[in-house]
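Below is the data:
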Amino acid sequence: MWLVNPIGFVIVLLIFLFAPFVVASTSSPDVRLKRIFDISFTGRDIVEEDAFSVGVHVLMVALLVALVVSAGTALIPGPQKRSFAAAVAGTVSGGLLVAAALWTSHSLDAGRNEYLSDLSSAMPPNERAKLFDQIGSEVEVGLGFWLGLTGLGVITAFNVYLILHSRRRPAEAVR
């Protein structure tokens, strides 16, 4: 049982590093626009890319550190303390994951809008609006975010269950 936490946190870390975390896409049927605007970023890409703000980088590195430290909760002596630490670590990591997804999505959306404005700066305003409508681009969280959040939720729920279950045992022994 004690291997569930470190393995779970390592799996979430791998998902974060290698699965699409945020995705930008266009609803345009034009293949040329899809090549430009359909892009996804993994957690590793976001940490390594210069396209994101310093705040996004700091938050992503904090999330990476939190996941590594969370895996280390397996070293804590005592099953109840270990489960409590893992539940807290899962909750903190989940909060960082949500904050990172929101901030990264916002940053990517703002960067895309800035790029489009620069690209279309020589165009007349009515053609610029037409281009923006034609692209129909949107930014959303990717599969890596949802799998990571689900994994952290399962780890946290499992450890809360273990904490509650271990507290019931002594009361049953007294009867």
In short: The longest strand covers residues 20-26. The helical segments are 4-18, 31-37, 43-48, 54-71, 79-119, 125-135, 143-174. Residues 170-175 have pLDDT under 50 and may be disordered. The two ends are 27 Å apart (CA to CA).
